[in-house]
Design goal:
Number of domains: 2
Strand content: under 5%
Order of helices and strands: HHHHHHHHHHHHHHHHHHHHHHHHHH
Radius of gyration: 26 Å
Shape: globular
């Protein structure tokens, strides 16, 4: 364990170097300048500013100077806040986000894990359904709905706490509760699902047969192994909390890092963006290391595997150190490559309809593969699935909502034009002329709700399919490879995970233009990272089980082991993570669209409708309640279906 810890600590600085290089170059390809204003700046003045900040020098010179300053702890000068360094801008905000994130994480863990254990102790009873019902509310309602509702209840109605601001302990309650509820809900569901899976394991039945007491069996053997997916989930969740939440910090006027980061992106403040990215990367790498150490403590088999994986090899270290040079060379070739692609017509082909059709075909094939896996599992466990009445009803509800959204998008339903404005009418409550009322611009809310649903559902499903297929394949490959190769693959995940999604989407927008299909692919291409970590850790645990070792001893091929042993035993976790990924992707779509990089007018989505409703919640509550209710019910149905799929998928679940 000591050698493993030293090796992982030795990887932190090279990985941070790769992250700094990648984020620095990503910022360089973003259009615009921090000196751009509404009124054009004279060329002479702009040239002086660029010379002052060294922006007129070659990219490799700028990067070398930045690394030299970074080695001394200097994150550079802000190009937007003149006279301020990044250190001065960030320093007062770190304690704010750290305090808020740690309190929210503590609340989420203290509530989520016991609730999950309690629900798993009496499955299908009121002790299971009531806590899981509340946890589903936390999953199904986004933070920008939970926050206003809590503010309305605790501040405006009860007058217990101020509605916003920062300064005293009373200002902590609303943001901590909002973040804590959002994180506690998936923790509770993961804990419950893992407890139900582990309790059916052979070693738990053996412990019971030996006469061990219920407390020792439940908490020492069952809970310790059930915490593996929970600890894996906590690492990126904790990094996101302690590095700041833009939505919550903006909602409650909290001066934290998340709010500062998005402001820096919109201001094109390159040094501030890179500095905040490095801080987030440091937090994520440290927390991932702590999570891996926690997994090794919880599962001794993982500890032995880590100890046997060797130290930090010279080849691996050299690869990390050469990665920045490779990225700089790639950046230098980017402009000539784009010019060549434009001149040859390749660029038009890649950004045209043919490329979109190719991407759509690949996504369709991946979706078909997932569908085949689901149908195959349901064919084997259909009796258990159909006995789960809530799952069957939820599946029928999802089909109904999907059909209604599809009918609205294709013009098959007699609805008003969702783009037609009636400023003279304005916002009107539900009535005969408008079943769900109108929004602030007089547009029919029912029509906008169904059209927005078609976008949100497509984003959620397509991105989730991409995340499931790629994340599962990558995680299985990393777990099966093991040793230094598996660790190197996980460090690649760490590096990608530390790059802000906002920067990646901006880069793709610059290269390929603003397109809805781009949103599907990019969001799905980011959402697989957590899935890969979860699958890899589960595969490492499965490789140490007797049935997998027996299959390897008998000469079974890797493909057979994956299909016959890994996938069936991973299906329960994947089903739960899939149902958690869909709402997460939908919320991510709302955040991206809020930044102006996703769904564009006159199109809409559920996330945008909820945001618009939250802004006018007190004057026009129906604008918030209608999309929130349908969004929440859809996500609630997804979770019920996920529970049914877990029962149908998991071959170790013998409950009838």
């Amino acid at each position: 364990m000591g050698a493993y810890l030293l090796r992982r600590l030795g990887e932190v600085l090279p990985v941070l170097l790769v992250v700094a290089t990648a984020s620095f170059l990503l910022v360089k390809v973003v259009p615009g300048s921090p000196f751009d204003t509404d009124r054009p700046m004279p060329a002479e003045i702009k040239a002086r500013y660029e010379a002052h900040y060294g922006l007129d020098q070659p990219t490799h010179v700028q990067f070398g100077r930045y690394l030299a300053n970074l080695a001394q702890g200097d994150l550079g000068l802000s190009t937007k806040y003149h006279g301020w360094t990044v250190n001065e801008l960030v320093a007062p905000r770190i304690p704010v986000s750290l305090q808020l994130g740690l309190l929210a994480l503590l609340l989420a863990s203290a509530v989520g894990i016991p609730v999950g254990v309690l629900a798993a102790s009496r499955p299908d009873s009121w002790l299971d359904r009531i806590p899981m019902g509340f946890s589903l509310l936390g999953i199904c309602l986004p933070s920008f709905v939970i926050g206003p509702l809590l503010s309305l209840l605790l501040s405006r109605w009860l007058g217990l706490v101020p509605p916003c601001g920062w300064g005293g302990p009373e200002h902590l309650l609303l943001p901590v509760l909002t973040l804590g509820i959002v994180v506690a809900a998936p923790i509770a569901r993961l804990t419950r699902g893992a407890m139900l899976e582990v309790r059916a394991s052979d070693f738990v039945r053996t412990a019971q047969a030996k006469g061990l007491g219920p407390f020792r069996v439940w908490f020492v053997h069952t809970l310790r192994n059930a915490l593996l997916p929970v600890v894996t989930y906590l690492a990126p969740a904790a990094a996101g909390l302690v590095s700041g939440s833009f939505v919550v910090e903006s909602m409650f006027d909290v001066p934290g890092l998340g709010r500062l980061f998005v402001t820096s992106v919109t201001n094109r403040d390159a040094t501030l963006i890179v500095g905040l990215t490095i801080l987030y990367a440091s937090a994520l790498l440290i927390l991932n290391l702590l999570a891996d150490l926690g997994l090794a403590w919880l599962n001794p088999r993982l500890k032995r595997g880590q100890a046997a994986s060797g130290g930090l090899t010279p080849g691996y270290l050299a690869g990390l150190l050469l990665a920045p040079a490779a990225l700089l060379a790639l950046h230098a070739l980017l402009a000539p490559a784009k010019a060549w692609a434009v001149s040859t017509g390749l660029w038009a082909a890649l950004s045209g309809d043919a490329a979109r059709m190719a991407v759509a075909a690949l996504v369709a094939l991946a979706g078909l593969a997932v569908l085949v896996l689901v149908v195959r599992a349901l064919a084997q466990g259909w009796a258990r699935f159909r006995r789960n009445r809530p799952a069957v009803v939820a599946g029928a509800f999802l089909l109904l909502v999907g059909a209604a959204c599809l009918g609205a998008a294709q013009g098959w339903l007699p609805l008003a034009d969702y783009r037609a404005q009636d400023l003279a009418l304005g916002p009107v409550g539900p009535g005969e002329g408008h079943l769900l009322g109108t929004d602030t611009l007089g547009r029919d809310l029912l029509s906008r709700l169904l059209h927005g649903g078609s976008v949100s559902i497509l984003v959620g499903l397509i991105a989730t399919v991409i995340a499931l297929v790629f994340g599962t394949a990558y995680g299985i490959a990393a777990g099966q490879a093991g040793g230094g190769v598996g660790e190197a693959m996980m460090r690649v995940v760490d590096v990608i995970n530390t790059l802000p999604l906002t920067l990646i989407i901006i880069l793709c927008t610059v290269v390929f233009g603003q397109d809805l299909w781009l949103l599907y692919v990019v969001v799905g291409g980011i959402s697989w990272l957590t899935m890969a970590r979860v699958v890899r850790n589960q595969v490492l645990a499965l490789r140490a089980t007797p049935f997998v070792q027996a299959a390897e001893t008998m000469g079974a091929s890797t493909g057979r082991i994956v299909l016959r042993h890994y996938l069936p035993n991973l299906a329960g976790t994947l089903a739960i993570y899939g149902t958690l990924t869909v709402p997460g992707v939908m919320l991510l779509e709302a955040f991206v669209s809020f930044l102006g990089l996703g769904v564009q007018a006159p199109m809409t989505s559920w996330g945008l409708l909820i945001k618009e409703g939250a802004d006018v919640m007190e004057e026009c509550p129906w604008i918030l309640l209608a999309p929130s209710a349908l969004f929440g019910l859809t996500l609630l149905a997804l979770n019920f279906v996920g529970d049914g799929l877990r029962d149908a998928f998991d071959p170790r679940d013998t409950r009838r």
